[in-house]
Amino acid sequence: MERQAETELARQLLTGDARAFDHFVDHFRAKIFHYSWLLCGQREDAEEVAQDALLKIFENFDQLRQPEQVRPWVFRIARNACLMKRRKSVFAPARELSLDEFLPSTDQEGEHRKLQIADWTRLPDRQVLDSEMKQVLQTAIGELPETYKSVLLLRDVEDLSTQETAQILDLSPDAVKTRLHRARLAVRQTLDGYLRTATKGAGDGHASA
Amino acid sequence: MAMHRHDERCKEIFSLLSEYLNLELPPESCAQIEAHLADCSPCIEFNESLRKTVELCRRYRPSELPEPLGHAARNQLLDAYQTMIAGRKESGV
Description:
CATH topology of the largest domain in chain A: Arc Repressor Mutant, subunit A
Largest sheet of chain B: none
Order of helices and strands of chain A: HHHHEEHHHH
Radius of gyration of chain A: 20 Å
Distance between the termini of chain A: 30 Å
Structural class of chain A: mainly alpha
Shape of chain A: elongated
Low-confidence stretches of chain A: 204-209
Helix content of chain A: 55-70%
Strand content of chain A: under 5%
Distance between the termini of chain B: 62 Å
Number of helices of chain A: 8
Mean pLDDT of chain A: 86
Number of strands of chain B: 0
Strand order of the largest sheet of chain A: 1-2
Oligomer: heterodimer
Radius of gyration of chain B: 25 Å
CATH superfamily of the largest domain in chain A: Winged helix-like DNA-binding domain superfamily/Winged helix DNA-binding domain
Helix content of chain B: 55-70%
Order of helices and strands of chain B: HHHH
Number of strands of chain A: 2
Shape of chain B: elongated
Largest sheet of chain A: 2 strands, antiparallel
CATH class of the largest domain in chain A: Mainly Alpha
């Protein structure tokens, strides 16, 4: 659902038009569920977080001053519900990702330098995410340290702006940009490893990238 | 590990690629990056792999859905919504 449609649902609910209620619940419940599942890694917790967050959302719906900001507003509440639910074991010390660990090496081939990465040209721009690729991507996102994952989920998966993400996570816009870049680099590296294996398999006639 | 030996410029570009892809850089920085990319095939290749990564993340939708919302859970939410609306009406908002 586009943000414009979400805004319209929020407007209807603010005016007391309950016909938007089920549509709003279905849409945002799935979103909050996915977000908290990826963030916390526990399916049961994600179900509970979705309910807790929606309850908080409806109790405080009149606090939503700008209906067009409903998506970031919902995710701020979802994030807080996630933090409340998160188990102690997930509070592992945050691992910092440095840029250097994602710099690929190069080989010199005559006058040309060749990057030691997979052949990404084999991956079509609009490739349908098949189940294997989706699983690899989900694992890559899931394995990110939480400080990076929370930014990537809001910026790239939920398509929120840098400013909106900064407000939800109580970070500066610059911190959002830095973390997003490192998160993307880490995901890219995991996908690169997968593509190399898949390409090798394709060469053997067993799989395709 | 150096991306290209002796080439600090590639490393600078490497640190800015997400902001470049997000169109968050000032025009002069974009122009500098584009000038570099026009002449550096490893950086082009890396930028392309990062762009496709972002594209995949944007199109990613988890396959699993939450369990259907139970009757009691839906009523709990509807009650909260109706109470909020009643409060607004009472306070004349």
